[in-house]
Amino acid sequence: MGRWCGVRRRTGAGGARPPASGRPAGAGAVRPRATAAVRLAAVTVLLATTASLPGGTALAAGAAGAAGAAGAAGAAGGAEGYAFADGAARVEGASDTAGAALLQPGGTYRSSLARNDTLYYRLELDADSDTYVSVTAVPGSEGEVTAVDGVRVAVRDADGASCSLGSATFGAAHSPRPVTAWGMREIEPGASRCQDAGTYYVAVERVRPEDSPPDDWDLELTTATEPRPRRAGPTEPPGTWDSASPEPLAGQPERRAGGSGFARATAVGQGVWQSDIRPGQTLYYKVPVDWGRQVYASAELGGSDDASGYTTGALRLGLHNPVRGEVDDAAKGYTGRPAAVGLAALPPVAYPNRYASSRQVGALRFAGDYYLVVHLAAQVADDFGDGPFRLTLRVRLRGTAEAGPGYTGEPRPKGVFELSAADRAAAPENGATRDGDAAMRAVAVGGIGTGSLLLAGLAVWTVTARRRAA
Questions:
Q1: CA distance linking residue 57 with residue 9, whole number of Å
Q2: Bridge-based pairing state of the strands 179-185 and 89-90
Q3: Sign of the dihedral through C-alpha 326, 330, 333, 336
């Protein structure tokens, strides 16, 4: 992987542990390894069993996200701090459309982008589905980035006509971080461009290559398709909605370490969540948002012992939709005193939102996992040290879940615009807090009970193994 985050690597003490006194080095020395292997197997069974319970997916994802964030916090920086999707296919971008590699619907890919390159990838589309492409660019930690630099994504038809153009930039903090832009080919009533089946191209480039760092950027690309709804609905965005910003959710925070990429995002529902974050680090959380629901979130950064400096745009909070398209983002400077940043009040998720002229409203076009992305600028370390700093995330969901449009076919990837029963249990309706979330608590208790049985069995095995060894 490449590099992006400016976190210092922490290493433990080296050297092997000496054998216990009186224990021979031969066959007896193998037993601790066997014991460790069985313990690892037991933990694996525990996680698998928990994940198989109703709602266990969210719990397992939370644990995986915590592990991923811990690894990122200890990394020396670079793309080690961003967790690319497991199994993402490696694909090379072409310098022109003639050699463009095919991106399959629902696929996830890895590529790289040089400073002065414009790369092309190919799509083969039908005449019925909307298609979305996201590109996450992960810059290295070496070299400065400018506020207006970033990544640009265009979708074009075979004749070169533009279907969409999107970009994402680093912002005022000048802090290297993963940035995600998205493009699309939409089937629109009355439209004449980009409506036919056939070959389309995705073009990816840097926004300001002349001011960009010289190193290559790693890329993560995803594609998704959305079939037509079964029944024709309104082609105008909803006229009115509750645009008042709610009070941030109160309550005692629960520890929930953020993930280190979209694919490793930590699952959370409505509630108050707390983690640690270091300068240069980006944390990812995913929140299930159903049709008809509104999501609101804020992030708070704890104070520093040294409150004698200022970092522009230090704390950044972004919201991305299920295909990773950015909905909204906000940033706040840091003086060493506690600081908070919140998203704008957003309308409920609805299919007709796609017809709105507002970019924010248009991105709230489908249900599914929405991503909260928190970044702490690398420059915070200059005045306030390497941290870690306390991060508190407050997530509130409002409104009553509604039925979706119902699709004529299967979206790809499968389930991308759906919520599971466990997802709904993690997202109580009408302002209920997580204290009333009995379903998720029952899942947790069930998982703990199953884990206790497994650990008890492990304890019996360990005692037996030790007696045999003696």
A1: 31
A2: unpaired
A3: negative
With a CB cutoff of 8 Å and minimum separation 6, the contacts of 215 are: 2, 3, 115, 139, 140, 142, 143
Inform me whether the pLDDT recorded for 435 exceeds 50: no
CA distance 133 to 154: 9
Predicted confidence (pLDDT) per residue in 34-81, tens digit: 444 434 444 344 344 444 433 333 434 444 444 444 443 333 334 458
CB 139 within 8 A of CB 176: yes
**462 to each of 22, 67, 137, 452, 454, how far by Cα in Å?**
20, 26, 47, 15, 12
- From the list 111, 155, 108, 173, the residue with the least C-alpha distance to 137 is 111
The pair of structure tokens assigned to 3 is: 């590099």
Q: Which residues contact 249 (CB under 8 A, 6 or more apart)?
A: 270, 271, 272, 394, 395, 396, 433
> Where are any strands of DSSP class E within 99-206?
101-102, 108-113, 118-125, 130-138, 150-157, 162-169, 179-185, 198-206
Is the pTM higher than 0.85? The answer reads no
Q: Which tens digit of pLDDT belongs to each residue from 205-227? A: 999 999 999 999 999 999 999 99
Locate 377 and state its tokens: 């600028």
Average pLDDT value over all residues in the chain: 80
Distance (Å, rounded) from C-alpha 427 to C-alpha 268? 9
Task: Write down the residue that tokens 């916090």 correspond to.
Answer: 73
Q: How confident is the model over 87-107, as pLDDT tens digits?
A: 999 999 999 999 999 999 999
Q: Which residue has the tokens 């690597």?
A: 9
